[in-house]
Amino acid sequence: MTSNRRTFAIISHPDAGKTTLTEKLLLQGGAIHLAGEVKARGAARRARSDWMKIEQQRGISVTSSVMTFQKDGIVFNLLDTPGHEDFSEDTYRTLTAVDSAVMVIDAAKGIEPQTRKLFEVCRLRSVPILTFVNKVDREGRDPFETLDEVADMLALDVSPQMWPIGMGGEFEGLLDFATETISRPEGPSREFLGTRDTAAIPQRFLDEIELARGGYPEFDLEAFRHGDLTPVYFGSALKNFGVTELIDAIARFAPPPRPQPAGEQQIEPSRDEVTGFIFKVQANMDPNHRDRIAMFRMASGSFKRGMKLTPSGLGKPIAVHSPILFFAQDRELADTAEAGDIIGIPNHGTLRVGDTLSERNQVRFTGLPNFAPEILRRVQLRDPTKTKQLRKALDDLSEEGVIQVFYPEIGSAHIVGVVGQLQLEVLISRLEAEYKVEAVLEPSPFATARWIKGDDKALDEFASFNRANLAKDRDGDMVFMAKSPWDVTYQVEKNPELTFSATKER
Q: Which residues touch 460 (CB under 8 Å, ≥6 apart)?
């Protein structure tokens, strides 16, 4: 029996229209009744997937959220990812939990750097990609130009499944190649209200459409699932064009849950044991109850509420009494879950990103990395009596993957490491809002960090000479804090028996 689960992420550059598309997909799936424009002022009409204070202030998504909805007997698990590059680590980990991805491209701008970066991550795991060219109702580039760019830059075969009839002011609708019908704009705001017809297409567009049909490869399911071909859909998320077609495509073409890598073996979704991994920890979803929820991607088996699962980091089983199904901020209890589903497990600091949960504790999923931070700062408290709260807050936020925290061997100031500047702003904003801790960030003397491994004797020897540059991460692993990239190179050459690594597998 093939699974009716489709777990996918939406990836794009900031402002390509990802959050709006998420809204419209949920609307089509009957999960929400009023799609709030992201820019709408009313708090009730905020994009449901952007609920943190800083997200609303800035109009960007900073944490990945999970939404589950159903349509025509298919259960969709949609993971919204932050598009902003400063949060690429969170996004990277989210992409380990999906079976396919929708890449949103702005019709006027084409492929932007961040899209490319995210695409590379998908390629690493050969995640199949569906492409959605958004904003065709505005003036944009020639669709052929966009398709050729996708083909050249990402080395993918492109197969258009629909075509815009005119763009911007000339926009007359979208032709769906499969049904030969045209979705038409209506009303004063020229949006799609459900009218489709088979009227004749003006002559000036016919040649272009013929070329689009004949000039690109046919859709090939196998090539798509291998990650070699992308079907392309055009539309306007804001005006509802192309959204239904996109959902249908995900239901028809996107793969059901795929096997997950666990060291040398692949865990098949059909395996009878419940297994899965934590790809994200989200704190304070409900600010009134300091809650922490671990996002758990089911890799195999059938989960029932109250089941005992053993986390790889702990070794003793925990009973999962109140697992949660998400709908952005809304949630309900999940009685059962199947492979491919994402459930939230309430957790008080016992579960971490990268942990495997299983019934028999024989499986370890691999492939969830930590990256070396590119910006390091010292955290100074305004009120020194709050040291304990600060430590708790930093531990929590590092568990979520927002920051990494390092505790130097010498000196008392905690050092936080991030990949991008925006994360620092988020850190200060959340310390204040969620933990009532006022702190300032000061420059630190370090430029980057490397995890060190080796035998005890070599580590002790290294430590005795470099104590001022050593710290522990929150797992207690040894980290070398380097003042410059040159410093790293010098130590690597000087200590051949040690390995200095820029990523750490969870």
A: none
Cα separation, 385 vs 391, in Å, equals 12
Q: Shortest CA distance to 185 belongs to which of 172, 198, 197?
A: 172
Helix spans in 401-453 (H): 421-435
| pTM score of the predicted model | 0.74
How long, in residues, is the chain? 506
pLDDT of 162: 92
Rounded (5°) CA angle 250-218-212: 100
- Provide the angle, in degrees to the nearest 10, between the axes of the packed helices 387-400 and 421-435: 130
Q: What whole-number distance in Å separates Cα of residue 435 and Cα of residue 111? A: 39
How many CA atoms are closer than 13 Å to the CA of 177, on its beta-carbon side?
Answer: 20
Using CA atoms, how far apart are residues 223 and 182, in angstroms rounded to an integer?
Answer: 28
Distance CA 426, CA 482 (A): 25
Q: Is 398 helix (H, G, I), strand (E, B) or coil?
A: helix
Mean per-residue pLDDT for 184-199? 84
Domains in the chain with CATH codes: 5-256 (3.40.50.300), 261-358 (3.40.50.300), 369-505 (3.30.70.3280)
